[in-house]
Prior knowledge:
Layout: H1 11-20, H2 24-52, H3 55-68
Amino acid sequence: MSKKVSITLDDEVLDFVDQLASNRSSFINNVLLQEKKRIFMRELEDAYKAQANDPEFQEEISVWDIAAGDGLNA
């Protein structure tokens, strides 16, 4: 779903957008989607680092690793 909005851009920024794209809305939408993805990936990386440095979590993982390798086929 898309919504029409009005934004204000500096002349320099608008000239830049116009040089790179024939469709302003599509270009700005794609730039913002890329930024959203970049932020998500950074947050995901930070969460993985936090897990790797959490001794309680690592202990729980090691218990599951042992259980998964117990040789039982479910």
